[in-house]
Specification:
There is one protein chain. 60% of the residues lie in helices and 5% in strands. By secondary structure, the protein is mainly α. Mean pLDDT is 91; it is low at 1-6.
């Protein structure tokens, strides 16, 4: 008798044995069907050893209740006396609700778990065929299949088989099931069976002998006519048999379903015929197949139907699989395939995805398959469809480091075991780790984690996923270093040929040079070489992710040669997580940024500082530049220092732009391309303004000391004034001066002209730093007019002679350097010209349109494609800017927001004022941003300015990467450019030309 308020001793024992609902368990144990068992401590111990004791007990009661009265005593006696049977049965009941349902429905099936002969421990296809032999229809086949599945699950949960053996058994059971289903289909249609030979080829995990508990079974069907039969009719008959086989396995019946049979890996996928002849298969693979299809064929295995035809198919396609790495598009295909396909995973699920998520099963499988494709062409030992067998072979051949392979093997086994246990519970196809605490507890206990199952499970899962994430990329690259390094005795290295094959597969066009660079960087026993061997596997992956891996590796070698002896360089790359990836992105994205970096490699430090890539404002830059000028001994030394600052800031800007455009593992790419354009334009404008300010100070100091005889100002024009400079832009300027009190006008003019000449000379001196070209051609009278004018001279010219295009050019006038009061006076002088009261007259509007039309017909370079010229082409920069500027000149007098030198700002103001509808404003803005980015991309990639897409395929691919297009999609990039600019041109026709 239990004292009121106290727990019974049974309740406490149940708690100790892992029951989460002891009260419910007590009631279940009191069921009359368990009367012979309830007091047996052995039963409680066995229940407590299961993944979910509560679930196991519920299943046991249901099974006992389902036993006929005459059989129940035999069942309970066997359960008490036979420990192996007890462990197997309760193990299954505690892990799988679905198999408990099956046992309750088919209560005699427990007998299949009682006796285990030696053959029962590791059954193969023959044993499973025997288990399915009596199934004559779809319903009985499902019952027999579940009975066989019950035995596999029992061995699995009790540890008799490991995860790889269980997966192999599941594949063998699938093979036997396909054979049985085909036999049923042939029996139902003997006329069809008599006309054709049909072979079933297993693909995917079934073909690889590594099936899950619940998975689509991927197949390909091959058909041939029997001797004397018509081929067309024979293939129709084979198609009917194949379709019936698929329905037998896939359709729901009173006994549920087995699994879907998926034939979508066949040539042409679901659009292609279900059954083809062998010659038709080969014709497709030889002419049309893509790289991923050969990757899929790596697991092809003949499993059912005509064995001779199946063997002929495997013999015929195998050579094609191992020649795939020699195909023309293998490298871009691999680059596309290497990018994780996670876009279709809902954001809420990605962290629970065992298969496709970061560090998931797909990472291991893909890495192994890619290495097989690369090296299997010359090493038949790698020709295995089973992931773990192939991984072992790769390690044995030196294609993968042994320690890496061992860690990856352990991680893959753990993740597959998780997947098996998750699916086993309800026999549902899922790769998501559950969120419910009870599900996680059962899952953890099923994997042997008993102290704190949920916490231990999460810890182990994250640990193994992290190992996969870390290793799946290094798997490609670390053996490349071993190929050029001194290895310990007994270690196996890649041969030079194998290393070259791998580098080619990863996109390196000159693998011999790449190996020389690796040898120079990583060979030897120095601490420096040891750190490089740690860094390079990761860096090589980032280089391979770019359009020009060779350039990235060469640049890294040059930077390392220049900085290798400094104590901070390798430490920065090793310890600052972002620095190494940022450097890899910068070095492999084009010529400009590496050229700037190699002139002063210490700028690498910017890449490791979280604040290092943020642009510095003009005030900060000007202060640094003027201080450098003040310390210099002469003008040339001063401007050399100034140009050094400019070079560093150009590198900072380019690096930030590239990293923002590419994105990194921790920071996705900048989603707003307009923000990137604005950032570059503002940063380059600021540093050029500071550079000009420094050159002006240096020129004045060299001849006049602190004070020039005349007040002097530099006015930015064009993109300089509009804060829209690109990397290769000249600085369009006007110079204005005003003689100081008591200074002769001629003397003042001479001084001003000498200052201009000296500034231009100093900024163009041949040095290692990029020159800054000052272009004063927008001045009154153009190249024929004086370089410098006084305010009064400008006023007189504009009053008497100014043309409408000059007023238009003045829309972008902005003070940049020198005497700011004088510059502001100039701005006040020109405001009435650029924003005329009451707007432009019709004659002026017609003149602007005439000038624009003339420019379109005369200034586009000969042979240039007008649909792809970013500056002067259809819907390009000129179209958008002239449209916006016409609006500014017509309405700027009334709309203060239009009084800005910046194109996007003026466009937004025109939209806000109701002068442009929303859709048209967005169209113009999108086209202007895209055209600007194309020009920036060309300069970054080629190292010299350009207004059209490069013709060189590698350079074009690099421009595509900068613009966000993955490899193989440059055609899509060009099509998008044409589409966006075509729409912009339509808006220009309407708003500018009044069409």
């Amino acid at each position: 008798m239990t004292v009121p308020g106290r727990r019974s001793s049974t309740f406490s024992r149940l708690l100790r044995h892992g029951f989460t609902d002891p009260s419910g368990a007590e009631e279940l144990l009191a069921a009359p069907e368990l009367s012979a068992l309830r007091d047996d401590s052995v039963l409680l111990d066995a229940l407590g050893a299961t993944a979910d004791p509560d679930l196991a007990l519920r299943g046991l009661v249901r099974l006992a209740e389902a036993q006929p009265e005459t059989e129940r005593q035999t069942f309970t006696a066997t359960l008490l006396s036979a420990k192996p049977f007890r462990d197997r049965l309760l193990g299954v009941l505690g892990a799988s609700e679905a198999l408990a349902d099956h046992l309750a429905k088919h209560p005699r099936d427990w007998e299949s778990l009682v006796t285990y002969e030696a053959a029962d421990l590791h059954p193969g296809v023959a044993e499973f065929e025997q288990g399915l032999a009596e199934a004559g229809d779809a319903v009985s086949l499902r019952v027999a299949y579940r009975r066989c599945l019950l035995a596999i699950a029992a061995r699995d949960v009790c540890g008799t088989t490991d995860v790889a053996q269980a997966a192999a058994e599941l594949a063998d059971l699938a093979t036997a099931t396909l054979r049985a289903a085909l036999a049923i289909a042939r029996t139902a249609a003997p006329a069809d069976a008599a006309q054709c030979r049909l072979a079933v080829i297993a693909m995917g995990k079934c073909g690889g002998h590594e099936l899950n508990y619940v998975s689509d079974v991927d197949v390909i069907f091959v058909g041939e006519p029997v001797e004397g039969a018509d081929e067309g009719k024979a293939i129709q008959a084979a198609t009917r048999l194949a379709s019936h086989l698929m329905r037998i396995c896939s359709e729901s019946t009173v006994e549920g379903t087995i699994w879907p049979v998926d034939a979508n890996l066949r040539p042409e996928g679901r659009n292609g015929p279900l059954v083809r002849t062998l010659s038709s298969h080969l014709a497709y693979y030889q002419r049309w197949a893509k790289t991923w299809e050969f990757q899929a064929l790596l697991k092809a295995r003949a499993v059912a139907g005509d064995p001779e035809l199946g063997a002929q198919y495997i013999d015929a396609v195998s050579p094609l699989v191992w020649q795939a790495a020699e195909r023309e598009n293998f490298v871009p295909d691999v680059q596309k395939m290497r990018r994780r396909v996670v876009d279709n995973i809902p954001a809420a699920q990605i962290d629970r995805e065992l298969k496709l998520g970061p560090g998931g099963l797909r990472d291991v499988e893909f890495a192994v398959q890619l290495l097989q494709l690369v090296h299997g062409r010359s090493d038949a030992g790698l020709h295995s469809g089973t992931t773990l067998d192939a991984l072992t072979a790769l390690a044995a051949g030196g294609y993968v480091g042994r320690a890496d392979a061992a860690q990856l093997d352990e991680a893959y086994r753990f993740l597959r075991a998780m997947e098996h246990r998750i699916q086993l519970y309800r026999l549902r196809r899922t790769h998501l780790v559950p969120e419910d605490e009870a599900d996680l507890r059962r899952l953890g206990r099923s994997l042997g984690l008993r102290t704190d199952p949920v916490a231990e499970l999460n810890k182990e899962w994250k640990r193994h996923a992290a190992v996969v994430r870390r290793l799946h990329e290094k798997l490609f690259y670390r053996p490349l270093l071993d190929a050029v390094a001194q290895l310990a005795p007994g270690e196996i290295r890649l041969s030079p040929k194998a290393a070259g094959q791998r580098l080619e597969a990863l996109g390196y066009q000159d693998p011999a040079a790449a190996l020389r660079h690796l040898e120079a960087l990583a060979s030897g026993v120095s601490r420096k070489a040891a750190i490089q061997r740690t860094l390079l596997p990761v860096l090589l992956g980032w280089f391979a992710d770019s359009a020009d891996p060779d350039a990235g590796l060469l640049g890294f070698r040059k930077v390392s040669d220049a900085l290798g002896k400094t104590p901070w360089y390798l430490r920065l790359l090793r310890d600052e997580g972002a620095a190494a990836e940022n450097l890899a992105r910068v070095l492999s994205a084009g010529r400009l940024a590496p050229d700037l970096l190699l002139r002063a490699p210490e700028a690498v430090a910017l890449l490791g500082d979280p604040e290092g890539l943020k642009p510095r404002g003009r005030d900060h830059l000007e202060q640094e530049v003027l201080a450098a000028v003040g310390r210099a001994d002469d003008a040339e030394q001063a401007v050399a220092a100034v140009r050094g600052v400019r070079r560093r800031e150009l590198f900072r800007t380019a690096a930030a732009d590239l990293i923002g455009s590419y994105g990194t593992e921790d920071n996705p790419r900048e989603p707003d391309p307009g923000a990137l354009v604005d950032r570059v334009g503002e940063a380059v404008t600021d540093l050029n303004a500071a550079t000009i300010a420094g050159a002006l100070r240096a020129a004045v100091r060299a001849e006049w000391g602190d004070t020039l005889p005349t007040r002097f100002a530099v006015i930015g024009m064009g993109r300089f004034g509009g804060h829209e400079l690109g990397y290769g832009s000249d600085a369009d300027v006007l110079f204005v001066h005003e003689p100081r009190e008591g200074v002769d006008e001629q003397e003042a003019a001479k001084a001003a002209n000498r200052v201009v000449a000296e500034m231009r000379r100093l900024l163009q001196l041949p040095t290692a730093d990029p020159p800054l070209l000052i272009d004063p051609d927008l001045r009154p009278e153009g190249k024929s007019g004086p370089l410098v004018r006084t305010l009064k001279s400008y006023e007189a010219y504009y009053r008497r002679w100014s043309l409408v295009w000059e007023s238009q050019a003045l829309l972008r006038a902005e003070p940049m350097a020198g005497d700011l009061d004088l510059a502001e006076q100039f701005i006040e002088l020109v405001d009435p010209l650029r924003y005329p009261a009451e707007g432009l007259g019709e004659d002026a509007v017609r003149e602007i349109r005439r000038l624009k039309a003339r420019m379109e017909s005369e200034r586009l370079p000969r042979g240039a494609d007008p649909t792809l010229h970013a500056k002067l082409g259809r819907g390009g920069l000129s179209d958008v800017e002239w449209t916006v500027q016409l609006l500014q000149m017509r309405h700027g007098w009334a709309e203060p927001g239009l009084r800005t030198p910046r194109t996007r700002e003026a466009l937004a103001a025109a939209h806000a004022a109701g002068l442009i509808p929303t859709e048209e404003a967005q169209t113009l803005d999108e086209a202007w941003v895209l055209a600007t980015r194309v020009r920036n991309a060309v300069m970054l990639v080629r190292g010299r300015p350009g207004d059209t897409f490069p013709s060189d395929p590698r350079e074009l691919a690099a421009v595509g990467r900068y613009l966000g297009y993955v490899p193989g999609h440059v055609g899509e990039m060009v099509d998008d450019y044409r589409r966006i600019t075509r729409r912009a041109r339509a808006v220009v026709e309407e708003l500018f030309y009044g069409a």
